[in-house]
Design brief:
This protein is an alpha/beta fold. It is 33% helix and 17% strand. It comes from Shimia haliotis.
């Protein structure tokens, strides 16, 4: 068992589902976000408020840590000036602090939006070229390249989880892109407990019949999703209008993010249910 595991973005929706299982993987889970507090803590969990753009705060946060699960960021498209601090400088601060503090591995919440402008009919694998759909996606590309460089130059391992749609299934697109919360937990756990990972990229998606991405190059991580969005297909397709082949939101992997103007919210075009886990 690890002595200390750090989770950034612990106050977010995905972080709320990760806190309890991660608290069981280390003697101490240090959860962090920019909120004043995140409510009731699990046994072995401690909360530290820290701004990702504050290098000194992140270096202090990672002191003595074995690994860091980095989910903290602005989770939507926004003007570049807003993305720059938490998503780009914040990623650098995490990797540099991890290197200086002797952290073994960074597990990073990347995104399909790093490759979101690829055509949806292309069955893309983890080696496909970056093709970001937004400033948000561009920041994910930066962090993936950062992780590769720190592995090549400094031997710091990282796993980059290109999450597709970790939310309730409310659209036809999500029949392929859904990542259940149970599969999210398995994905992060495998990224932590796989003995060696080097630099790895894996798509965060459940075992959907209509999954549009190929994880065969990431099989070494041992992630074997169990859930399938096909259980929702009948109701979703009955309510969905016919597809529009001129709509980038329907024709590109990035969905709504591929269609919005740079700096404009992608989530505002989606129906994301806020089902954040309550302790």
């Amino acid at each position: 068992m690890m002595k200390k595991l750090v989770l950034t973005g612990a106050g977010g929706r995905l972080g709320s589902y990760l806190r309890e299982p991660l608290s069981k993987l280390a003697e101490e889970l240090v959860s962090s976000d920019i909120l004043e507090d995140i409510g009731t803590l699990y046994p072995g969990e401690r909360y530290v408020k820290a701004d990702l753009a504050d290098a000194s705060a992140i270096h202090a946060l990672l002191e003595g840590a074995d690994m860091v699960v980095h989910f903290g960021a602005i989770g939507d498209e926004a003007p570049f000036e807003d993305i720059l601090g938490p998503n780009i400088i914040g990623a650098y601060n995490v990797w540099e602090a991890a290197y200086q503090k002797g952290v073994r591995r960074v597990v990073y919440a990347s995104s399909i939006h790093a490759v979101g402008m690829h055509a949806k009919q292309d069955f893309i694998d983890t080696e496909v070229a970056h093709r970001p759909d937004t400033f948000y996606g561009l920041a994910k590309c930066f962090a993936e390249d950062l992780g590769k460089m720190y592995w090549d130059k400094r031997g710091l391992e990282s796993v980059h989880l290109r999450i597709l749609s970790c939310a309730q299934v409310t659209s036809a697109r999500a029949l392929g892109t859904w990542l259940s919360y149970d599969d999210l937990i398995q994905l992060v756990t495998r990224a932590i407990d796989t003995p060696t990972v080097g630099f790895s990229v894996i798509y965060g998606v459940s075992d959907n019949d209509r999954a549009p991405v190929d994880n065969s190059r990431a099989s070494h991580l041992g992630y074997r999703p169990r859930d399938n969005a096909e259980q929702f297909a009948l109701d979703i397709l009955a309510a969905e209008p016919l597809a529009d082949s001129t709509d980038s939101a329907q024709m590109c992997h990035g969905g709504a993010f591929a269609a919005v103007d740079l700096g404009q919210s992608g989530q505002a075009q989606m129906s994301i249910v806020d089902d954040k886990k309550k302790v």
